[in-house]
Prior knowledge:
Layout: H1 2-17, H2 22-50, H3 53-77, H4 82-110, H5 116-142, H6 158-175, H7 190-205, H8 208-239, H9 243-271, H10 273-293, H11 297-325, H12 331-344, H13 349-359, H14 366-386, H15 394-398
Helix pairs in contact: 1-5, 1-6, 1-8, 2-4, 2-7, 2-12, 2-13, 3-4, 3-6, 4-12, 5-9, 5-11, 8-11, 8-12, 8-14, 9-11, 10-11, 10-14, 13-14
Subcellular location: Endomembrane system
Membrane topology: Multi-pass membrane protein
Main location: membrane
Amino acid sequence: MVFIVFFLYFSQWLVIDKGIADFWFNMIFTIGSAMLLFTAPILGSIADKTGRQQSYFNKITMLSLLFFLGVSLVALFFSHQIFLAALFFLLANYFYQFSFVFYNAFLHHIAPREKWGRVSGIGIGANYLGQIAGLLITLPLAGGAIYLIGETGRAQTFLPATILFFILALPMLLFFKLQMQQNPDYKINFKEEYRSLWQQFKSLVSDRNMKMFLLAYFFFNDAILTVSNNFPIYLQNVFGVSDKLKTILLGGALLTSIIGAVSSGFIIDKIGLKKSLLIVIGVWVVFIPVLGLNTNFKLFTVLCILVGFLFGAIWTVSRTAMTALTPKEKLNFGFSFYTLAERTSTLIGPLFWGMITYIFINFGVVRYRIAMITMAVFVAIGFYFVRKVEIKEKADLIS
């Protein structure tokens, strides 16, 4: 819930309301990715050795909450402190993404192998359901129909979303108990962990299938996340869409995302992971250029709704594939690189997007279309690597 509100309104608050260049907005994600690179694998490795996966997840979730709260208060009461708001957003997003290192690894522990696809799909679907609720609750605030405190406009949405994040996270933080054996005798040595990091990584990617999948994920996720992060700005600058209509479009896309997530989960368990991956990524290769080339807004609204189905499907399929490829004793370490492949891809995608919109500034709105179409190249590279991945399906494991 909280992420969709900040994704939709903070990007516009920073770029449109405060006049910050697209390039610098995208650099927030690039810097956050670099921070993850130096921290996520270490804590993931320690979690595997100590069994403290849930403890780390809870603490990092709370840190994310605190920094989202910081963004909210700065935007409402100190809106001239743009750098401070951007810094808090960087840290909030960093910890939010960090939490998925441990959250994604839960899948292996809470569901049997033959149900990973559908459980992953239901989880992704629940996420999108929360995002729809977030949009519906904050729409009157963004449109000015309801005023709370502080700066008017888009800044009104941040604090309610953060409060709801805290309320809805409480049951997970208080009552969810992961049945894992902790190792209290393990002595944490950060210096040794950093020293052995490279060897652990080489061991992880010595499996050719893991290496090919992480490469594939890096490239196709690069494009999809970059499109996602810049989509509100794209709607504003290319079609002049109002905040109300943006919310309606995103709400429709999120609704189909739930359908995409849940249905793809069952499809995975039916036809297999490899085939599911190829189908979903192949459709993305075609769909992104169609989005960029289309100039008819009515058709674009239909495409926005359809793209939601693909968003739900891609996260469900990729998370299930990573779970199947990662050894049980290295789940958190493995998912740290899954998260890094996701986030370090934002070192490249946003950089390309920002450079294209800057270099072709004299082209007007066409520069955004060029940036959009360019993203399809990265997805196509990901599709090439996925073709080289072999994944043991449940039938193979049983035999």
